[in-house]
Amino acid sequence: MTVADSQTDWLAKAREVLDIEAQGLAAVRDRLGDSFVRALEVMAGCSGRVVITGLGKSGLVGRKIAATLSSTGTPSFFLHPVEGAHGDLGMIRHEDVIVAISNSGETDELNNILPSLKSLAGHVISLTGGIHSTMARLSDVVIDTSVPCEACPHGLAPTASTTATLAVGDALAVCLIDWKSFALDDFRRFHPGGALGQRLTKRVEELMRFSPLPVVPSGASLGQALDVLNAGGLGCVCVVDGGGHLLGLLTDGDVRRLVCAGRLALDAVVDSVMTASPLHATPGQKAAEVLDIMESRAITVLPVVAPDQTLAGMVHMHDVLGQGRVKFSRS
């Protein structure tokens, strides 16, 4: 067998594994229903902590879910079931919610402490492929995470099942972000050492672009403005007076609407079609505040105006987020 043949075979095997895992995710997605919503309601209403527990590979998945929940506004920690049976149940409070993870639902070490957990905490939610299992019977809410098959050729090593469980945990965390209106500023407070947190504490003047800026003078033709718009690469062109004061903005969207309305006249004065007194940022604004404005208005770039109303620069969403350099997790 040649090297090329060997490579082709291994790539085919790798793609088969990914296909199996994708099929498992699709199966779990299609089964999501009332139990997921009920689990979400219980977790959103939790006034204590969401306590994740599981053993082996399920425990490793549980640690990641707990970390994701904690970093996105839902206090959470991982409880090892064996340690729980030897005193760590003392960490549980009645206002806590338990999320138990087991693919089979028949993990003895976990099921042995579930009655105690249920008596100590408010609710028990289970993520399991065994919806008729012992763990499921001991739970208040059961989310079915069963998959058609594992990617392991022997059907033994948890592969597709752990991927599916991890994805359900992510789905719960992301839904809770929206439920709790967890904003970028909240994320920054929980990630003061991360790259995103550091960038969002900066001021606009530290991130904005100074030159060359896409600018045309008041009175320029629409054709001239389109040339600058096309060359600028920011999706907009600023219109300024003789003193450099910002008068208006022409965007890609404005041009598209003119074309659709049959009103695109290249000899028209740009002032007649620009957005006058446009939304803008100031040099001293925090990047987090500007990013919130961009997200709420569905825009990606803002002119930056100095106190004397002169155009000081432009700031793009990529400038705030770091143009791909920002990482939300560490590997």
What does this structure look like?
By secondary structure, the protein is α/β, with parallel strands linked by helices. It folds into two domains: 180 residues, 3-Layer(aba) Sandwich (Rossmann fold), CATH 3.40.50; 124 residues, CBS-domain, CATH 3.10.580.10. The chain is 45% helix and 16% strand. It is built from 15 helices and eleven strands. The strands form three sheets. It has a five-stranded parallel sheet with strand order 2-1-3-4-5. The protein has a four-stranded mixed sheet with strand order 6-7-8-9. A hairpin with a 5-residue loop joins strand 7 and strand 8. Helix 1 packs across helix 8 and helix 2 crosses helix 8. The radius of gyration is 27 Å and the shape is elongated. 34% of the residues are buried. The C terminus is likely disordered.
